[in-house]
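Bench log. Compound arrived from synthesis this morning; before running ITC I wanted a structural hypothesis for how adenosine-5'-triphosphate sits in the protein. Inputs:
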Amino acid sequence: MRFKQDFFEQLTGFYSQVYPQPISNPHWLGWSDDAAALIGLSKPNDELLMQLSANHAADGASYYAQVYSGHQFGGYTPRLGDGRSIILGEAIGPHYAWDVALKGGGPTPYSRMGDGRAVMRSAVREFLISEALAALHVPTSRALAVIGSDLPVWREGQETAAITVRLAKSHIRFGHFEYFSYTEKGNNAKLKQLADFTISQHFPHLSTDKAGYIQWFNEVVAATAKMIAHWQSIGFAHGVMNTDNMSILGDSFDFGPFAFLDTFKEDFICNHSDHEGRYAFGQQPGVGFWNLQRLAQALTPLIASDDLVQALNQYQRYLVDHYLLLMEQKLGLAEVKFAQEPSLTDEAIAEQQKQDLQLVGEFTTLLETNQLDYTNSLRRFGELDVSSQKSSLRDDMVDVAKFDHWFARYQQRVGKVDDVANWQRDRNAVNPKYILRNYLAQEAIIAIEEQGDNSKLVQLHQLLRHPFNQHPTMEDFAKRPPEWGQGLIMSCSS
Ligand SMILES: Nc1ncnc2c1ncn2[C@@H]1O[C@H](COP(=O)(O)OP(=O)(O)OP(=O)(O)O)[C@@H](O)[C@H]1O
Ligand SMILES: [Mg+2]
């Protein structure tokens, strides 16, 4: 790894230098060639294992924990910070420099009562979902590796510690801005320094003046909306959308009790501690907005309120537009809009969007009332001949009459498909066959826990690298969960 240290060198006062503590008997549980390529690495080796398990120092690394705060479940916590994630610096890759962080690397000045560690099960889940989301084209932080150990840690009982080696284009969160806005009230120097750094590093096309700040906030609003549109389109529930877990780049970030929907359920809650359903699947778009409002509030010393409000007002449009785009592709509705018929006025396009949104909404309602699997139902579009009344989708429905009513309008909207095979291929290219269902992750974790066997993890990771492909020997991985794996809800303890 070749590091640069821009955050460390330019933002003194925004972190504490702290060395990670080694984990004993380190061993690779998972390694991502795809993530490795992002920072110019190829295969793992023993020396790298020693470095990333904190047993050896890495050349050129600085080792620091960043300070931030954040709104957690609606309430403001004035100081959080990296309590168990230690950043080595920005590893220079062919296209971008990625922060390398050891999540679970030991205590820091921000650990509060925590031990600075991550348990194996949560480290494995973070590794798998980071790489699975990337393969689904969802903006996300990445995971280079997950490293197991025999270091005991205590949660509800004794477990073993592990480290996820996280790669992120930036670790700057909404909570960073909240921290420097509220702790140094009346002195905007640090807030401005942080905004300028963020813009020059990650929004280099923007200036660091008044106009640049406005445009920057606009882009953060758009990127956040797009990320959430992606989540809604693939049925992903994040589970802990606190503002300290919202990346300023709109990358999915900090994976704890996340889950994909099995059966479609708007009010699905994946976080055991989320008693009120604040972060339920269907709440995510609204929470994204609420979080952006918190960011806007923190930025008021830099950006005029009217400009912030104007940008926030665009959120819904960004979100709906992107969600529709993704869903239109999934259902095969995209052609009319993309053809850009010159005769289409703005009003006609808006009307088409409204109708499409309704068609999509009625489809997800059908899935919910018929208790159907979200991913598998969408995958069925890849088997569909739109001109025919027969479809496997229809066979799944209990309420066939309602489905027929919907399908007739759907057929009308799609129109005539000339090349059915091609149309089906296009659907399969956007509707994944394989997702990281909780029970699959759980099986991989149990094999490591009980037999020290990571082969299931490796197999699952390899499968999820190509979620849209057919894998004839791995059909079982596409199935709905068995009874024991239904409604697995993860706790926050990690
Ligand atoms: N075991 C732990 N030891 C010390 N601090 C912890 C521990 N677990 C969580 N924290 C801290 O509690 C706060 C909230 O935790 P949260 O679960 O959102 O983040 P995280 O998963 O630890 O890390 P990240 O947001 O970097 O992915 C963070 O400041 C985090 O560093
Ligand atoms: Mg966090």
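What the model suggests: The chain has a mean pLDDT of 96. Residues 122 and 494 are 5 Å apart (CA to CA).
ITC booked for Thursday regardless.
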